Structure formats: C-alpha cells, structure tokens
Amino acid sequence: MNFLSEEILDYCQNNSTSETEALRKLNRETHAKVLKARMLSGHLQGNVLATFSHMIRPKRVLEIGTFTGYSAICLAQGLTENGILHSIEINEELESMIKNYISEANLTEKIQLHIGNALEIIPNLPEMFDLVFIDADKLNYSAYYDLVLPKVKIGGFIIADNVLWSGKVVDPKAKDKDTLSMLAFNKKIQEDERVFNTLFPIRDGLMVAIRQK
What residues pair up with 132 in beta bridges, in sequence order? Predict the structure, then answer.
C-alpha cells in the first residue's frame, strides 16, 4: 500500500507533528484487535487529512467509512468552533470502539457517528458539506460521489482514499472488481468538468476534487 521506502516513510513521519496519545492508542489497539488493520489511515495520512481540515476550516464534514475512527479524529481537528463531522460506518461491531476513542479525543460534541448503509444514510442528511472523505467499499465509490457532490458547497472538497489500489490501477493484468471500480472512479473524476482534481500519491493514493460548479 505504501509506495515509499520504509526509510523515507520513517523520515517523513519523524519530521511531522506526532500523533496525539489518543491516536497512538487507537493505532495500537486497531492493529492488535481488528481485522484488516491496514485500512487505518495511520500517522502520515492522518496528518495530511488534519492539514487539509486546518486549511479548509470546515463547518460540516462527511466521512464515509469510519473504520475505528482514526481519520475522523484527524479530520475533526480543523473544524470551526461550531463545526460537526458526520461519520458513517457499516460495521456495527466497531461502534463501541469508535465511540470510546472519540470520547478520549474529547470530540463527542464534534463527531456524530451513524451506523448503517451510507447509500441509505447520505440522502437523509440535511446538510451541505465543506469537506467529504470517502474511504469505504470500493465498488460503491462512484455511487457515493454521485450522492455527495450535490451536497458539497461550491469550493468544497471531496477526498477519496485508496485510488491507487496498491498499484493495481496501472497493472493491465488486474481485472478484479475492486480495481475496475477504482479505474472507473478515477476516470469519472478526471472527466467531470464540475471539479478541479489532483491525485496525490500519498500512501495508497488520495484523489482530491474541489467542486467548482
């Protein structure tokens, strides 16, 4: 998933603001107790998300795919005083762990957790968002994008994770459904004249799209 050498990655992390104690504990517990722990954003990508949030200063954020809550805590760092982050997670077994770390990070009043299917929850959120982070099942990325774009303010941001899909997007032999979905998603964003987009080769790839119309 990481395309940088371990030495370069360590150097980057050692020269970036350290994880908070809550994030360190969450990182450790996720790797110790949760399957597919590699889905966790982690230190460097978490800092990138926090940096975007601090730059944008969003009032409303939507996250699709909470996992154990690491990225939600990072994205919440730049919220305005009255800002709210809505985070959607389909796996109800993670709910207590997510809420525990949201509380430990003193963000209970800032992060609203929704457990269920994002395709059903998003249409019922009466919000316009400054920032959306997509990090859920890859087969539905395009569907999530279509649902959220009308809910993103002009000048607002959509960030999608895993758009390089461990390098499979440039492997002509990769024909699995997830890879094909990511290829279709990236092509969709690239051809959408309503957004200005850049694909950042950070960790497993972050597609950043700014709504312009």
Answer: 62, 158
Q: Which CATH number is 149's domain given?
A: 3.40.50.150
Contacts of residue 64, Cβ cutoff 8 Å, sequence gap at least 6: 88, 118, 122, 132, 133, 134, 135, 136, 144, 148
Single-letter amino acid code for the residue at 93: E
User: Is pTM beyond 0.90 here?
Assistant: yes
In a domain, 73, yes or no: yes
Determine, yes or no, domain membership for 1: no
Total number of domains constituting the chain? 1
Strands 84-89 and 111-115: parallel
- The whole-number mean pLDDT for each consecutive block of 10 residues of the chain, a chain of 213 residues, reads 86 96 97 92 96 98 98 98 98 98 98 98 97 98 98 98 96 96 98 98 96 97
Domain region containing 106? 6-211
